[in-house]
Amino acid sequence: MFREMSEKNGEECKVELKRFIEKEYGSIKEKFVSGDGQKFQEYLEEMTIFKSFLNENSPATPNQPQIITNSLYKKLQTVSSSFINNFQNKIEIIKAEKQTIENKLRKDLQEQKSQTNEKRSKLQLRNTQLEADNVLLIEKEKFA
Q: How many domains does the chain have?
């Protein structure tokens, strides 16, 4: 009977401790899951401070340090996955932007080449005409 009551009390204490952790974790979660906290190192620093806070201020329970550590470990896994996913998304966006810029530059280069070749052809034609005109002038001067 005493053992059953002790176990029930222990479970209630664990539930209370987990509620306390979730309540206090809310501001950290909001900051880093929403993306306001941009650096993972900042998150780790916040979690170190948070762990100290929990150790000092959370409800006393059997296995309190283990429960706190396990809970924070799970949160760390979730947020680190979020950071990784955000980082991968940013990489994909950068790759897409890079590809768009490369395509535009290739297109611009092709247009520049085309325009340069067109100008070259016109200049060569003009040069040929001027040389022909020059030959005609020289021939005219000889007979004049």
A: 1
